[in-house]
Amino acid sequence: MLERQMTMNVSGYSNLYDLIVPEDHFLRQINGLMDFTFIYENLKDKYCHDNGRNAVHPIRMFKYLFLKTTYQLSDKDLVARARVDMSFKYFLELAPEDDVIDSSTLAHFRKQRVNDDDFLDFLIDKTVQVAYENKVLQSSTLIVDSTHTKSKYNHVTPQEVLRSRSKNLRKAVYAHDESMKKKMPSKPKEDTVEAEIEYTQKVMEVVESQSSLSSYPKVQESLNLLKETVEDDLEHLQLSQDPDAKVGHKSADSSFFGYKTHLGM
Fold first, then answer.
1. Domain assignments of the chain as residue spans, ordered by start
2. What is the pLDDT of residues 198-249, one digit of tens each?
3. Maximum Cα interatomic distance, the chain, rounded to a whole number of Å
4. Contacts within 8 Å (CB) and 24+ apart, 82-88
5. Element (DSSP H or E) covering residue 117
6. If both were cysteines, with which of 21, 102, 115, 156 could 160 make a disulfide (CB 3.0 to 4.6 Å apart)?
């Protein structure tokens, strides 16, 4: 069941936000600038309004997703930080003593609620609208320019994504203990998703077996992000099947995969 209004519990500790989150904090400014009710209007039809238990409000869920993207955190690490970071709680419109969601709730939201191909276009349109309303865009002159737009399909295979993130985990581990290089499994000889997942899981098992390493925040964050990559649906990482997307070059040694987009403002 979904309520129209997102509510914040009355708390005697709310004045802590005035002491801890400064006026010029990025998240406080975003909260002051944006009216996020457009998120509710866009997503309300994906919820049941008169049956079942109360759902976490889509505006709050979108704000979790905003934080995840802005700060490049896995679902698990985002929730852990939101539990103790007062700027996050302020942005989420939670009382200081309120608990946060379970990380699985965020995973469900991003996979089931906002996986519509039109949702990104909707957000871009809204961004331009807000810019006009706040007089960021004021000129009536039409300026035409072009930019490079990445295809919504990645130009990398799932294997390459897993390799990159497992490499980041190994680097974080070696920064604390170079002797761990001898304990890591041999890299796969086959260039398949199955082989790379098997190798990645072995790497994670080695790291998790060393409790002292897992206590380092950088190692834990890299480990959690790698776990999330393995567990997530890998469909969005598949090599593009978009016949219109091409490999283009900004320079001799810099390329992109997508389109040449022309903008008029």
1. 16-117, 142-155+239-265, 158-237
2. 999 999 999 999 988 878 999 999 999 898 888 874 555 444 445 555 555 5
3. 63
4. 86/16, 86/17, 86/20, 86/21, 87/20, 87/21, 87/25, 87/27, 87/28, 88/27
5. helix 117-133
6. 156
User: What single-letter amino acid sits at 188?
Assistant: P
Strand blocks (E) in the chain: 144-150, 246-251, 254-264
DSSP string, 43-63: HGGGS-SSSSSPPPPHHHHHH
Q: Where are the alpha helices (DSSP H) in 209-254?
A: 211-214, 217-231
What is the strand order of the sheet 144-150 is part of? 144-150, 254-264, 246-251
Distance CA 204, CA 209 (A): 8
For tokens 């979790």, the residue is 64
The span from the CA of 175 to the CA of 216, in Å, is 11
Position 132 pLDDT exceeds 90: no
* pLDDT tens per residue across span 139-194: 666 566 665 555 554 556 778 888 999 999 999 999 999 999 999 999 998 888 88
